[in-house]
Amino acid sequence: MERTLTRSGHLPVMYRQVLDGLRVHGNGAYLDGTFGRGGHARGVLSQLQAGGRLLVMDKDPEAIAVAEREFGDDARVSIYRGSFADMANWDAAAAGLDGVLLDLGVSSPQLDVAERGFSFGKDGPLDMRMDPDSGHSAAQWLATAAEKEIADVLWTYGEERQSRKIARAIVARRDAQPLTRTAQLADLIASVMPRGDQKIHPATRSFQAIRIFINRELADLELGLDAALSRLKPGGRLAVISFHSLEDRIVKQFILRHAKAPPANRRMPVEIAFTPDLLMIGGAQKAEYDETSENPRARSAVLRVAEKLGFGIRDSGFDETSDPAASLDPISNPQSPIPAPPPGGAQ
Q1: Is residue 71 scored above 80 in pLDDT?
Q2: CA–CA dist 81, 203 (Å, integer)
Q3: Helices in the chain by DSSP H: which ranges?
């Protein structure tokens, strides 16, 4: 669930596989939708010539500050603070892209800094927002959310079997004392979880669930995948690294939906024509042993790569005269499996 921090001599997750998957060429245009600390972006930039373009995005103001400090003077680089769900609305991407990278989840700097409130292992303010200037914090949401809503979030985004018990405990505790610290929440969850031989901390799934919900990560992923397809040029590559099954399922189903015809329905008198607009490049890739032994956070990483086939934007489902975000918002789409975000949630 974390993106790796780039340090001296330490590469980001699946660095070689990502660059191979993107198939970077010197004068191409590439977008890194989750800049983090720039590990993958540096790899792409190192292969670009003077005519190449690198577009970087991130919700986190600290990540954007790093990008501006390190790449702000490079004419090949454009920087945008915001979610990759908005890439189709960024003018810099309008001319088309030769590659899009999404490295999902929370970054190591976010996880490792207690003040960001992502970690149950480090006491800090119960925040969890990737963009601390937008939306409600985890503490604000937990202070007012209904018990059923909390339970639904824990189950939907964390697959937490004890979701109802934990939600009931949260509501009971907040009536007596506000939950404002990560250690408070972690200790509360541990106190109501059944004791056993669990290899993970009792609060792991709950923290994951709340973080995903607060940052509307799965809803943004759905939007971002559609936006990436709309902006990729024919032959352009999409590379997505996910860290848990909820993310990977969305990515896998998206690629399959655009690459393979749906199963035939024998009840339909006329077969519906299907024209693929994505080509799967291999299957799910995992980090190699040398990487996982050095960086345990890479063990759960899954990389999927797809290439856009030779059709225009209209063939990918976007009308260039419309607002892509409005037409593709899963929150307003009743067929989407993604529940609504928190009121005023991070955009």
Answers
A1: yes
A2: 31
A3: 15-22, 39-45, 61-71, 108-112, 138-144, 147-158, 163-176, 182-192, 204-214, 217-231, 245-259, 289-294, 324-328
The Cα angle at residue 93 between residues 88 and 99, in degrees rounded to 5 = 100
Q: What pLDDT was estimated at residue 134?
A: 87
Tokens of 123: 């006491």
Q: Cα separation of 126 and 140, whole Å?
A: 9
Do 117 and 137 contact (CB within 8 A), yes or no?
yes
Amino acid identity, position 217: E
In angstroms, rounded to a whole number, what is the distance separating the alpha carbons of residues 143 and 179? Answer: 7
Per-residue pLDDT tens digits for 209-235? 999 999 999 999 999 999 999 999 999
**What is the rounded CA–CA span in Å between residue 57 and residue 59?**
7
- Region 310-323 average pLDDT: 42
User: What is the structure's pLDDT at 314?
Assistant: 37
